[in-house]
Specification:
alpha/beta, 3-stranded antiparallel sheet, TIM Barrel
Length: 269
């Protein structure tokens, strides 16, 4: 028996882009038009800001631009977490959550660390304020789910061998359980250079695969946490799902789903 993603899909692909600049319009539509989902980490105080050469998504267009995607925290003012005081860090997260939830009408429980900086105190603060996961900037070039979602190290920045890693992901060995490819960056990096070719080529390469789950950061977090909560009989052949999320497994007989609150005989371990 092996755990798989919803509907028996073997792999997951997700994207994570920071800062909410106007170039998110093009990126969000690129992903959406290819059946993919991303998570966009916003600084709520910058929503609608116009700094001349830096323009940000406005409150009026926010729901339309990010339709089908996830919106997550990045600090209300994008301050360096390891420089400011504890009280200031609380406000960075809490006020960002409050503002983004008001704008979207949804719970906002994901985050990426501003400047990629964090420590154990920052993690503790974020968790106490309802943050479920937070992305770092430490590329692994690998495809394993994170051991600690509060230190979710991505596979790669889009400038770090993206197409090569995409090929590796498409051919990831079958013994990998719940592999995930996680791509991160800033859309302004495409906008400023005027070169969208790498991300466009990657999206074209990865689109429409029958074994890939195209999901937001939060969807992957929620599913893997559900997997990790599963309980088994002493012989390992019967599974109980205490989570609120349906969990799928692959067996010799095919794919099985175990619904929330259900106990099911799997027949193998």
């Amino acid at each position: 028996m092996r755990f798989v993603y919803p509907n028996g899909l073997r792999k997951a692909l997700t994207f994570s882009y920071d800062d909410g600049q106007s170039f998110d319009r093009r990126l969000a539509e690129l992903l959406r038009s290819h059946g993919m989902k991303g998570t966009f980490h916003l600084n709520s105080e910058r929503v609608g800001a116009d700094w001349g050469n830096e323009k940000f998504i406005t409150a009026e267009e926010l729901k339309e631009v990010y339709a089908g995607h996830e919106i997550a925290c990045h600090g209300v003012q994008h301050r360096n977490p390891t420089t400011i005081t504890r009280q200031q860090m609380v406000l960075e997260i809490q006020e960002d959550r409050k503002a983004l939830e008001k704008l979207t009408g949804h719970l906002v429980q994901g985050m990426s660390y501003a400047f990629g900086n964090y420590n154990e105190e920052i993690i503790e603060i974020a968790k106490s304020l309802g943050i479920k996961y937070s992305r770092t900037v430490k590329d692994t070039k690998g495809f394993f789910p994170p051991a600690d979602f509060m230190q979710w190290h991505p596979t790669c920045h889009h400038d770090n061998h993206l197409l090569e890693l995409g090929d590796r992901f498409l051919d990831v060995p079958g013994y990998y359980e719940l592999p995930v490819m996680y791509v991160w960056g800033h859309s302004f990096e495409f906008g400023r250079s005027g070169d969208w070719s790498v991300i466009e080529a990657f999206v074209e390469k990865m689109a429409g695969k029958e074994d890939i789950w195209y999901a937001t950061n939060m969807e992957i977090y929620t599913y893997i946490q559900a997997v990790r909560s599963q309980e088994f009989s002493a012989d390992g052949l019967t599974m109980y799902n205490p989570a609120a999320t349906e969990v799928w497994v692959s067996t010799r007989e095919g794919f099985l789903s175990v619904k929330p609150g259900e106990t099911k005989y799997i027949g193998e371990h």
